[in-house]
């Protein structure tokens, strides 16, 4: 047991990509800790029964919760070899109307939540001069889309922090990997759609349909299967020399082209895609 890789994954409720990361790690004979907020603990029962994964309560917005979860693992195994910062929420709507508290919540969970885990795990990894930290960004962190400015900006922050951390943690023997998913099929899109339905737009009422379309955008028929995505990422992270960045999934090619395109080309593409090419 002492030689098994000890991995902690955040945001592991059933139906999500974190759930699949746990399965993929368990298949590689890792000692896996799946974590999520208290309300979702029952969603991880299947992981424990069928894959030997241990479930932990962990709220990425709480220092106390993060410290407590990490202490459980350290007390049991003495180390954390792999951290996958997967926890995140969707946030869709026009930035001029989306309530600031919802935008703050997205940033707190998606960006600061990852950094909170990093800050609490790094001392343990640095003491051993080894460890892999995996921060999950998004293609829209590189190329933001209309109606998704809140989510896109939270993921852009993840990309910026990860690029800085990769260099800052190198002297301590810690690898930092930036994961850039494309459109991955999971329950993430349906959870986002529920939130959109709760809003009554004022200025943007004529665009309600386009806003909903943005909420569904990552969950089309061609979206990459979450299990296949998770296995791909885990195989790279557990390799002898983990890559700096893993870009994988449906639409990553399109977003790569858009990232190199002039802004007028990008604006034209998204204006047409999300009904912003008309005057009111």
Number of domains: 1
* CATH fold-type name: Rossmann fold
Specify the CATH architecture: 3-Layer(aba) Sandwich
* Strand proportion: 5-15%
What's the SSE pattern? EHEHEHEHEHEEHHEHEHH
Q: How much helicity do the residues have?
A: 40-55%
Shape: globular
| Major sheet size, sense and barrel closure | 7 strands, parallel
What is the number of helices? Answer: 10
> Oligomeric form of this entry?
single chain
Low-confidence regions? none
Reading side by side through the largest sheet, how are the strands ordered? 3-2-1-4-5-6-9
Radius of gyration: 19 Å
Give the total of beta strands.
9
Question: What is the terminal-to-terminal distance?
Answer: 64 Å
**For the record, what is the CATH homologous superfamily label?**
NAD(P)-binding Rossmann-like Domain
Class by alpha and beta content:
alpha/beta
Q: In the CATH hierarchy, what is the class?
A: Alpha Beta
Mean pLDDT: 94
Protein architecture, described:
It is a single chain. With 280 residues, the chain is α/β, with parallel strands linked by helices. Helices cover 48% and strands 15% of the residues. The chain has one domain (6-273): Rossmann fold. It has helices spanning 17-27, 45-51, 63-77, 100-128, 149-168, 188-197, 208-216, 226-237, 252-260, 263-273; strands at residues 6-10, 31-36, 54-57, 82-85, 131-136, 174-181, 184-185, 224-225, 245-248. Strands 3-2-1-4-5-6-9 form a seven-stranded parallel sheet, sandwiched between helices. Strands 7-8 form a two-stranded parallel sheet. The mean pLDDT is 94.
């Amino acid at each position: 047991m002492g030689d098994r890789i000890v991995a902690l994954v955040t945001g592991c409720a059933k139906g999500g990509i974190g759930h699949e990361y746990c399965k993929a790690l368990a298949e590689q004979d890792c000692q896996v800790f799946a974590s999520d907020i208290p309300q979702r603990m029952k969603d991880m029962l299947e992981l424990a029964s069928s894959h030997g994964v241990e479930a932990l309560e962990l709220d990425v917005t709480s220092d106390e919760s993060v410290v407590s979860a990490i202490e459980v693992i350290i007390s049991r195994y003495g180390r954390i070899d792999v951290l996958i910062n997967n926890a995140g929420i969707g946030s869709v709507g026009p930035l001029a109307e989306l309530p600031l508290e919802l935008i703050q919540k997205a940033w707190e969970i998606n960006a600061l939540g990852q950094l909170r885990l990093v800050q609490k795990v790094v001392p343990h990894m640095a003491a051993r001069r080894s460890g892999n930290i995996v921060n999950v960004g998004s293609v829209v962190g590189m190329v933001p889309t209309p109606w998704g400015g809140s989510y896109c900006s939270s993921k852009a922050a993840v990309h910026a922090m990860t690029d800085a951390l990769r260099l800052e943690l190198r002297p301590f023997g810690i690898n930092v990997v930036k994961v850039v998913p494309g459109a991955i099929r999971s329950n993430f899109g349906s959870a986002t759609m529920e939130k959109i339905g709760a809003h009554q737009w004022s200025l943007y009422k004529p665009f309600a349909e386009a806003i909903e379309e943005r909420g569904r955008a990552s969950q089309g028929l061609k979206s990459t299967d979450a299990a296949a995505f998770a296995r791909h990422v885990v195989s790279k992270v557990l390799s002898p020399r983990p890559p700096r960045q893993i870009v994988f999934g449906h639409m990553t090619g399109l977003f790569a082209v858009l990232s190199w395109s002039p802004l007028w080309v990008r604006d034209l593409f998204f204006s047409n895609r999300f009904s912003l090419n008309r005057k009111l």
